[in-house]
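Weekly modeling sync, notes
Attendees: AB, CL, MP (scribe)

Item 1: holo prediction request
CL wants a bound-state model with pyridoxal-5'-phosphate before deciding which constructs to order. AB pointed out that an apo prediction alone won't tell us much about the pocket. Agreed to run with the ligand included and paste results into these notes for async review.

Input as submitted:
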Amino acid sequence: MSERILVTRSSMPPYEEYIEAIRPLWDTHWLTNMGIYHQKLERELREYLDVHELSLMVNGHMALELVIQSFGFPRDAEVITTPFTFISTTHAIVRNHLKPVFCDVKSSDGTIDEEKIEDLITEHTVAIVPVHVYGNVCNIERIQEIADKYNLKVIYDAAHAFGVKYKGKGIGNFGDASAFSFHATKVFNTIEGGAVAFSDHKIYEKLYNLKNFGIRGEELVTEVGANAKMNEFAAIMGLCNLRHLDGALAGRKEIYDFYREEISQIEGLSLLDENSDATKNYAYFPVVVKDCYGSSRDEIFERLRENNIFARKYFYPLTADQACFKNKYRDADISNARKLSKQILILPMYEELGRGNAGKIVSLLKKKGGR
Ligand SMILES: *Cc1c(COP(=O)(O)O)cnc(C)c1O
């Protein structure tokens, strides 16, 4: 039996490097609560992501949930978002007692269809939560124009967009805030972790309260906060992984370029559009399986699985179609999203995948129709 190839493989620094880096914790016994490594990672990531302000969080979901909470929207207000995403995006809205209004996506790149947003706006709309899905940048200018016109907040789910630059600026500089994920499966990880990027310092204070019980002094609690702090072991993992990130990205780029070259020649398979104003982080490799390919997306998925290759159907089903949300919210036409979710397949992509494995995956994709 050949080795199992999963859709990704978590980046880890050399063992000795991490062990050496955590050794000082045995002197200080300071394991969490915004310690020195938390502070250091916050500084280094602010620089790497090219953003004004950053607040580290225990994970990407809490980053998104708490930054939505930080705006203090009225209960039951409406938030326009995309169903073509990880369930976390919709959960973060609903757990804030807000109503998601699902907007369709563009088949060309999977991001929210900015031309369909305006029709969904009502007097109850307070925000737009778009997703830079697979690191593909949303139509930032148009979304901001709509938000300005209707006085809405824009909070990006940037979980996939770590390190992406748009028109020379860090992706976290757009909208009112952006939430990143540093989960083990993401392109940069702190085991579990995340962060919110923003420009308004008032958000920093608010998020600090929300992630640390609202504690502002030994005898002072000013707000009903949660606990969403990143611990020192996670922060050190991030500091180590950050040092190796350029190498990891170079490795991913090689696989990405190879896939792109080979797969663009296979009839019936297509790739999503790339935005020439944006850089890439090579986080995912989505392939669209068209009707004319000869096998369905699910058939390819199975064929790969029989060969011990575990691609993923991100994002199928749509969040709007999940048991917990189905038929609960205002129905918009999300037919492009539904169609894309039935055609999309994410191929394995990580630094150590190797040309040999990538080649094997490509040749399985070339065997159309039969097995
Ligand atoms: C991973 C992810 C999240 C949640 O991040 P966690 O760090 O796993 O909590 C949110 N949104 C999207 C689109 C994601 O892929």
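Recorded for review: Residues 15-243 form a domain with the Aspartate Aminotransferase; domain 2 fold (CATH 3.40.640.10).
Action items: CL to compare against the apo run; MP to circulate these notes.
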